Structure formats: C-alpha cells, structure tokens
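Hey, quick one: can you model this chain's 3D structure?
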Amino acid sequence: LKSAFRLAVIGEVPTLTGVTVSSPKAGTPTTLTLTYSSGAPTPNLSYQWQIASSASGSYADIDGATYATYTPTADDVGKFLKCQVTAAGSATGTQVSAASAAVASAS
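Sure thing. Here's the predicted structure for all 107 residues.
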C-alpha cells in the first residue's frame, strides 16, 4: 500500500499537507510521495522513519529507514509509524508526518 505525502515549499520552510500513512502492513512497502508548490525548485530531501508503541507515544528513529520507502517488518505489527522529512538546498526545514494507523500483520 502506498501512502501519499505532500510537501509544499512556502518561503524557505517545507510544510507537509494532506499527510496520511494509511493501513501500513508488514512486508508491504509504504512509500512517501512528495509534491511541491507551483514553481518551487526541488530541494534536497532526507527521510527518517520513526516508530512508537502508541499513536501518541514517544517515537524513535528506525535504524536504516532513511529512504522515501519503508517496508514494515513483523516486529512492527501493532506499532505506529511517522516519517520525518528534512529539506536542504532550495528550501530548508524539517517536518514530521502524522501518525499512521497501527501496522497490520502480513496475513
């Protein structure tokens, strides 16, 4: 299942809009898709997926999950995901997505 994120560049600060990570499932890639405001140059982006035991809990970085796509594992089932996006270059700043639904099992 793919999840869509939107990144709008307002001034020099990236703003995520329409952010959802719906129904992540173990073994199925969740992809971060970015779009930019009209006429804005594409900044250099870095990603950091995060995980927590509850949607409102304390999120920790997932080691090695630094790409636009993250595939939840069996160990992630029942936990919640967020993605932190950092822009550099033509725009700067960091934004974190809203929490996902709980990661579902693969079966």
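One thing worth noting: DSSP finds no helices and nine strands in the chain.
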